[in-house]
Each structure stands twice: as C-alpha cells, then as structure tokens.
Amino acid sequence: MDLKSGYPFWAVRNGLGEPFPGLAGDVRCDLVVVGGGITGAIFADCFTREGLEVVVLDQRDVGWGSTAASTAMLQYEIDTHLIDLARRYGETAAVLAYRACLEAVRKVRARAARLGVDQRESDSLYLASTPRHLAEMQAEFALRRRHRFPVSWLEVDALRDSYGAEAPGAILSRAGAWLDPYQMARALLRSARRRGARVHDRAAVQRISANSRGVRIETRQGAVLRAPRVVIAAGYESQGFLSQRVAKNRSSYALATDHHVVGRHPAIADTLIWESARPYFYLRSSGDGRIIAGGEDDEIDVPARRDARVDAKARRIARRVSQFLPEVQLSPAWAWAGTFAETFDGLPFIGAHPQWGPRVFFAMAYGGNGITFSHIGADLLSAQLAGRRHPLSELFSFKRLEHRP
After folding, report:
1. What pLDDT digit, counting tens, does each position of 51-67 carry?
2. Residue 59 sits in a domain of what CATH number?
3. How far does the chain reach from its first CA to its final CA, in angstroms?
4. How far are the Cα atoms of 3, 17, 118, 253, 286 from residue 10, in angstroms, in the given order?
5. Which residues form the FAD dependent oxidoreductase domain (predicted)?
C-alpha cells in the first residue's frame, strides 16, 4: 500500500536514519508488534519498559509509512466535538475520552523530552470557519468549561489583536503540543532496542493464525514468530487484517515553508491553529522557524491521482491560511500527501476483534489524534495484560460498530 506522495519534510530534516536488520530465522517472544511507525514504536517502548520481550516488524523502512507524512499536532481535542460524543455515548464517556487525551498529550511530550526529540508545548486555537458555526462552538466551549478543561473564548477583536486572525470566534485551549513524529518513532524504537527489543525492517507479515495457546506469524521472507499476543499497529494498513471495514481512507495534504517564516509572525509561534469546517485546515510552527500547514482532504486514496494533486493542494492550503491569517503569506518549500483514515465517530478502535479472538490486539489510532490515541492504547493493553479493566476499553472497542449509522 502506497501511503504517501511527495517527499515529507521530516525525512529531509532528519535523513532516513540507520536501517534495522531484516529478520532471519524463527523467533519466540512475549509480544509481536506489527508496524514500526509511531504507533508501533509507542507500544514497543511501553512494553519493553514493563519487562516484556518484544519483536517489532515493519514491511518497509521503520517510520517510513504514514508516520513520515504526519504533521504531529498533539491535542486533547478529538476531531469529533465533545458535545457530539456526549450526545452519542453520554457525557461521562465523552469527557473521559477527552480527559484521557489531555493526559496523553502531557505524557507523550514528557517522553519526547526525555528522549531528546524536538517537541514544544503549544496553545490550540480552534477557529469558527463561518458565523453559522458559532452557536455549536459556543455550546462546545460551555461544556468543556463546565468540565474544567483549560479553555477560553475569543471574540473577533481579541482574535485580530492577539493573532492577526479573521474569524467570527474561537476556542483557545492551553494544553497542546507538537513534535517531530519521524524522530520520535525512531527514538522510541532505539530506546526499546536498548532494553532488548528486536526491531526488523523489510519483514512483511504474510499470515497470522491464533488459537487458545498463542499466535503464529509467518513473514514473506519465511520466518516464523510465536508469541502469546500480537499487536497490529500497522496504521492504515491494519484494516487489511480484518474482513470488516472499520474506517474510511482519505488523502490529506501538507506543506512546510522555509525556516524564517515564524519569526515574522511571533503570535503563532506557540499556537496550533485549526478550524471548525470539515475537512479542516490547520497549521503549526516547527522547531526551526517554519510553518507546517495541512488540510484539503479528499476521498481519493489512489496513489497516482494523489501524487498529481500535491502541488495544487499545497497552493490551496496556502490560500486558505491567508483567509484566516491575512498577514501570513505562505510559500511552500516542501509539499506532500498521505493516506488518512477516519472512523464514523472520530474515536480509535483499540482492542481485540471477534474475527481474531483475545490474543490479537488492534491499535487503530485513526484521525487527528493518532499519537495520543496510541499512547492510550498502550495503557489499555497494559491494563488488560495485568488483568485490570481500563475505563476506555468499552468506548474504544469494536463493539461500537454495532451502533454505526
């Protein structure tokens, strides 16, 4: 599966990194993680720190799938409004999901700092795209404030004075961050390897079989792995392991400017900016003074057609940014695109699926909160292995599909 188009900024910035060895021979371990992107890396890091013997398999170079195309905005705000999740699942469950993401942002950022990964704390400015969105956004703000999320409401004049932004209103949250996703994935895997994990590039899974005694995995290269459990953390390719379609693939587009742009707009240096329209545009700064912006999602997930749209989409993103931030004129230095998957309610699918039974665990951290969802997923599986009930195990499970519209 071709997951990206163009040449993502992170690979230019970091270089491709050292290769991990291929897998030769058969292996027994405590846990196999299928996928060496940011999600698989989070799981490997978590469980090696808990003392498990972990093997990570990736069919391409580690971190070179969707992770390399991610713009890695860390937000507790889920793509689906808190008020909409409350209507669907009840206020208690909705608030629990948002609070878990809030805590995950803090923990991911702390882990990145310990590993020396480029990261930064940021505000999150959520702009009303049109006056028609104001009533819904004000209701969203009121619900978040009632549950003591760190939010304030900005009117037109405050937006213009503080950010040079032109919008009917906005929710300002003081609990966001960003990081370098490619650097983070590789740093986590190196850390896991120092604790004994085996990480293998170019090890494509051909067949998985599970029974009451454990899981057997065969690679296309002829190796066989046996373990009590496996985590399918292969990003958007994870759906290939299920006969049931659980998310819709799309294409999302992004750009990065030259390094001097943020210095001309200091108000947005520490702010993630996004909008209420769906699909939405968004932007953030980088550690070296660039602006990274994205959006213009479409329903085309055909690599050749996506490739042909990258440059035109980047120009449209730049124009879209200037509509909300008239003083910010973007000139793309890099442009790329990648596969992006959405679930029907904006929440991840984390846990076992009836097709495979309890020993095969899926970490399908889809949507704009992929990194925070992945961190929650590692906590969830850790609780499951310890015989504890995680408070989000039901809400993030595949049982939600029974109520899909």
Report:
1. 999 999 998 878 677 77
2. 3.50.50.60
3. 28
4. 15, 11, 11, 14, 11
5. 30-382
